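Progress note, sequence design subtask.
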């Protein structure tokens, strides 16, 4: 039986951890600037707010298992909740089945409670779902759908088998929708590399429409989307009369040799539907000019921007058998009745998109 001990991760553990992540899980699994250690620094050292809760189990100087929770402020039923997103749960194949993941998760949860975190959540894989369900996590009543717009039908239909969706029918549908793909408000949307001073006025107004969402304050947005060590994201900003009225974040990625664009966040004043429409239209125009094959977005099925996507020509996509499906699991820490009650509701109005997860 190998001798294994676990402890909180320290900056001196960085090299060993990074080589563990690279070896066993080709971490983080998407493009970013710099080396893997730069991504680690971004995620585990540079995050604003409470520092990540981070544990590893060691066997003779090598990492055997790892688990962490990244503290993130959520807004739940209109109230700020200090929450933590579980992530980077991994046990080296040589050490699996010995209870390491369980014992690290115990330590992460104890530490989270001691730090005053009120809620833990995750966007788990299938195995992760089983493990955290056994620990009392439950799926939140939020149903996510993936939408897709094929921007380059010729390339797409050559590369992908689509079942009953036929190229001529798809082209006819797209030409019907094409008016919505032209921005109704030229000049409203532009790409930016920095967030403006009034970004939080818009995100606060937007978040007030939902039962559950992240608190997108300025320092969080800058860390999440404007530091290339964390990933290559592009931000679109909508402005009306000099005031920020919405934003979208996109990224491009390769899947089996095909290049796609994901809309990973979209926030806009709901009483001005043109804003979200113009942001989506601009994202699609960017995808077309870069010869990306399709644009995709994961979004709650009852989100107010679903009609916006559909008017633009997006249709629901059923993920293939091996692809991960977005689900959100959570568990209150402690006995807050209000937080426990959210699981009893039939559905929660949620603004949660891929950018809120650790998938990108
Ligand atoms: C998932 C993973 C972290 C489990 O690590 P581990 O150290 O072997 O897990 P443990 O020994 O602590 O087992 C924890 C529980 O999960 C269960 N479990 C572990 N691997 C499992 C599997 N492949 N399928 C189903 N259940 C599994 C165990 O039976 C145990 O439950 P029990 O206490 O009721 O018996 C490891 O298999 C792994 O690294 N997988 C690949 C990465 C991954 O999927 N991570 C989760 C991302 S959300």
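Output:
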């Amino acid at each position: 039986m190998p001798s294994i001990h676990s402890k909180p991760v320290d900056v001196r553990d960085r090299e060993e951890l990074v080589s563990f992540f690279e070896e066993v899980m080709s971490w983080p699994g998407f493009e970013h600037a710099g080396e893997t250690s730069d991504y680690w620094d971004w995620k585990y050292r540079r995050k604003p707010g409470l520092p990540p809760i981070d544990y590893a189990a060691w066997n003779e100087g090598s990492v055997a298992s790892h688990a962490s929770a990244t503290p993130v402020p959520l807004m739940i039923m209109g109230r700020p909740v200090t929450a933590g997103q579980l992530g980077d749960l991994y046990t080296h194949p040589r050490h699996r089945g010995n209870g390491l993941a369980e014992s690290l998760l115990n330590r992460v949860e104890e530490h989270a409670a001691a730090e005053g975190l009120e809620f833990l959540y995750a966007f788990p894989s299938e195995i992760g779902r089983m493990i955290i369900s056994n620990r009392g996590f439950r799926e939140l009543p939020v149903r996510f759908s993936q939408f897709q717009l094929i921007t380059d039908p010729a390339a797409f239909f050559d590369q992908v088998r689509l079942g009953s969706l036929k190229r001529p029918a798809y082209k006819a549908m797209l030409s019907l929708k094409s008016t919505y793909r032209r921005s109704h408000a030229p000049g409203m949307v532009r790409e930016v590399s920095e967030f403006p001073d009034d970004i939080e006025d818009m995100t606060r107004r937007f978040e007030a429409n939902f039962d559950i969402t992240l608190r997108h304050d300025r320092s969080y947005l800058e860390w999440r989307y404007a530091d290339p060590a964390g990933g290559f994201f592009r931000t679109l900003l909508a402005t009306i009369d000099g005031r920020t009225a919405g934003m979208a974040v996109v990224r491009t990625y390769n899947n089996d040799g095909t290049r796609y664009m994901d809309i990973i966040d979209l926030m806009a004043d709901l009483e001005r539907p043109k804003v979200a429409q113009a942001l989506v239209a601009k994202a699609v125009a960017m995808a077309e000019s870069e010869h990306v094959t399709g644009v995709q977005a994961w979004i709650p099925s009852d989100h107010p921007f679903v009609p916006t996507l559909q008017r633009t020509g997006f249709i629901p996509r059923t993920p293939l058998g091996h692809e991960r499906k977005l689900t959100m699991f959570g568990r209150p820490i402690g006995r807050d009745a209000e937080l426990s009650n959210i699981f009893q509701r039939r559905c929660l109005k949620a603004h949660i998109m891929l950018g809120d997860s650790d998938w990108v």
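The CA atoms of residues 53 and 72 lie 11 Å apart. Work on this subtask will continue into the next period as scheduled.
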